[in-house]
Amino acid sequence: MDSKEPAPVATAPARPGRLALAFSLLAAMLAVGLAVGGYFLWERLQRLDGEQARIAPALERRVEPLQGELRAISRDWQTGRHEIEQQLAALTAARERLSRRLERLAGEVGRSESGWMLAEVAYLLRVASTSLSLRRDIETAREALLAADARLRELADPRVLPVREALARELNALREIPAADRSGIALALSDWERRVGQLPVAGSDYHPPARDARGFDHTRTAGSWKELPGVIWSALKELFRVREHDQPVQPMLPPERAWFLRENLRLQLAAARLALLRDDPALWRDGLATARRWLEQRFDTSAPAVRALLADLETWQGLDIRPELPLPGAALERLRSLRQTLEQPAARVPADEAAAPETVPAAAPRAQPEAAGSGATRREKPRDEPETGTTGSGEAAP
């Protein structure tokens, strides 16, 4: 056992030397790598500094014009803002002057809210009268009268009750007039004009009668001479047929004549439609009667389309397209009398003020409009001219 112990003692000093050598080599390689990396980094920084030194002057040359333009824009903005403020001040002053003038005009005219309302009612009554007398427009006249009654109701003045009473009578008279759907009838006539070509003309188409389902037995023979007359009579009945008609038989029409009949019927329907739109009752009734007579005489009345058109014509013949219309005049006359009564006290005020020379506020508004057109006012004109001249865009016209 003693002979084996010296061997490990002899090899122990060799391992620490190899580790130190490995660490030394690693440290040397790391130092070399850091040195090389530092060199490349320094070279890169030098290159970036050179590029920055070249780019900075170019950027400064580009920024200088932009800064100049920015300063110019700022100056223009300041100038424009100052001009806008001046124009706004001038417009404000002009608006104030206009407001004062409007107040003076309102005081001079002396129109109250009720006066304007009555003027609007008078206009609506004239619209209703014109619609009935010139255009026979019942719907427009009714709406105008209803609007006039609503304005008088909003006024809430007992003095307008007689006018509202006359309005109520005129509205009731308009409601009694039977309303006719002229647009609907005109459209229906136009549709029938288009469908006239589909109406069958009497005698234009021949439809042979249906044969007996049993037919004729051609194999029938006479068993004896006594049965021979019956066989002959049966054969003759197949060759000839006798029918009875309550009316004269219409001859067959050639196609061109059927076309003319349809075109004439179309013209009659168009004439009736035109008479409806022009309020011509005589032409309306004549056109419908002629179209109905032609349908009954020349067309196949058994066809459903012909029967439908005949029913429409019969209904329209009983329609009065030009009824008697009442003229709304009583309400307008009462309103005129009321307005004259209300305006008489206001008309006496200017005369009383003109008789008193010392009433300066009443005379000043009348003298100012007369002198404004000739340049005679010397107190307000110098004060207005500097303010109106600063706008520069015509805002001082008021």
What is the compact description of this entry?
Helix content is 72%, strand content 0%. With 398 residues, the protein is mainly alpha-helical.
Encode the helix/strand succession as letters.
HHHHHHHHHHHHH
Q: Radius of gyration over alpha carbons?
A: 55 Å
Task: State the separation between the terminal residues, measured CA to CA.
Answer: 134 Å
Q: Number of DSSP helices? A: 13
Q: Specify the helix fraction band.
A: over 70%
Calculate the mean pLDDT score and round it. Answer: 75
Low-confidence stretches: 1-5, 346-398
- Structural class per helix/strand content? mainly alpha
Share of β-strand residues: under 5%
Q: How many strands in all? A: 0
* Coarse shape: flat
Characterize the largest beta sheet: strand count, sense, and whether it forms a barrel: none
How would you describe the overall organization of this protein?
With 398 residues, this protein is mainly α. Among the domains are: 78 residues; 68 residues; 94 residues. Helices cover 72% and strands 0% of the residues. The chain contains 13 helices and no strands. α5 packs antiparallel against α11 and α8 runs antiparallel to α9. The termini are far apart.
